[in-house]
Amino acid sequence: MATSFLSRVLFWPRWFFRQLTSMRTALFLLLLLAFAAIPGSVYPQRSADPNGVRLFFDNQPELAKVLDSIQIFDVYTSVWFSSIYILLFVSLIGCVVPRTKIHYHALRAKPVKTPAKLDRMPIYRQFEAFEPYLDAAQAVLKKSRIRFTRSGNSISAEKGYLKETGNLVFHYSLIGVLIAVGVGGGLSFSGQRVLVEGETFVNNLASYDSFSPGPFFNEENLQPFDLKLEDFEVVYDLTNLNNRGQPIDFIATVTALGKTSEIKVNSPLAAPGANIYLTGNGFAPVITVRDGEGNIAYSGPVVFLPQDSNMTSLGVIKVPDANPEQLGFISFFYPTAEELESGAYTSIYPDPFVPLLTMNLYSGDLGLDNGVPKNVFALDTSNLKEVASRNAENPPLQLEPGDVVDLPDNLGSVSFDGLLRFASLDVAYNPGGIWVLGFALLALGSLALSLMIPRRRIWFRFADGKIEAAALARNDDPGLEDFLQRLVLEINKEIEKK
Predict the structure, then answer these.
(1) What is the C-alpha separation between 384 and 389, in angstroms, rounded?
(2) Which domains does the chain have, with CATH numbers?
(3) For tag attachment on the chain, is the N or C end more exposed, with fewer CB atoms within 10 Å?
(4) For 26-58, how does the pLDDT look when each residue is reduced to its tens digit (9 = 90+)?
């Protein structure tokens, strides 16, 4: 009674485990994992593009909240993606380990006995021969490195064990990829930093604009180095009429590790314990703001985010130290400005041939003292007075390089002192990358091996002055008949030699 009750209790766990460890389930989970990774390439991820996530929240706040609730912005660390990942890992191990044991015993076992009725095999031949034919067949099979066993007047041979070996190696390689991705992701980190020409970055946590560590990351893993952005250059296509003005190369010239190097989109810089990738670029106008008392309240380059292919860029300047009122600017930079019929401006070329800066001015409480973090690329104007804009009493401010413009209402002045470029750099470390590549190449090679090598069984039997020859393949094998024919020809040649 107790045994029967225990069997009923264990029935469903056993059934679930058998289903989970079937090859069909493993393939389904592998396909599901591929589909689950799609949102990670469609939507910005916090680990790789935190600014993109912020912009998504700014542009579509309601949709962003829904997507964030199901971890769409953290796909690869989400609960649902990790669940599929772990189930696939368990399923692959449950599939491969029993098959490895079976394959091991198959390698040690002798080929199966010769069937009683060879004429039932898909490939069958019968012809007259002498008994030494079996001796010649043995010699040919040995020379061809085909495993065989002789029993009385018959020979049983089998080849293609590497097919199953390749299949098993392929699945072990997938497990290796999963382990490498998991361990590598746990020890990895990715940090982003925007550098304006002339600025220097030092590899410590305080220097990053955003930082995404793996669960096993330790701050001591950051190896010290510094990097200075000397110059940033964009090369545009000026020869192809259909592609004129399109960027063809981005070059960040940096000083790091005591030497000058270049970082390009597909050419990262190898630094101690990390690689540095170029992920973005734009303009950083140098702005000086004087308040109503004539004091410098802000001075320096401001990072402007590109809004289109012609580098029309948006920048926000917050001046909390201005007197008598705090100031905020929403600014647009046009590298090659052209005025539209509506009076608005647009950029018609991405290089700064006719640079123009327009600024909407706001005054009042910027809300920076309430302890709530604010997006540096956005200005909350709900509690601010609109001083200068297309909808205010005063028109937007317009500045070309070198211009100084007085602010309305005696709020001070602003000057456009110069123009620099910035580069967005990603400092990334993932020790599992080389292992993932190695296991992936091993999986590719073993899969090719398992697809190219057929599994075949061959039999020869001598009786009444005749030889019966038969062959059988595990799967469809259009070359099986030719293989047996070639084998018979080689045996005949071996007999002629003797």
Answers:
(1) 13
(2) 19-98 (no CATH), 110-160+454-497 (3.30.310.80), 189-429 (no CATH)
(3) N
(4) 888 889 988 998 988 888 887 767 767 877 888
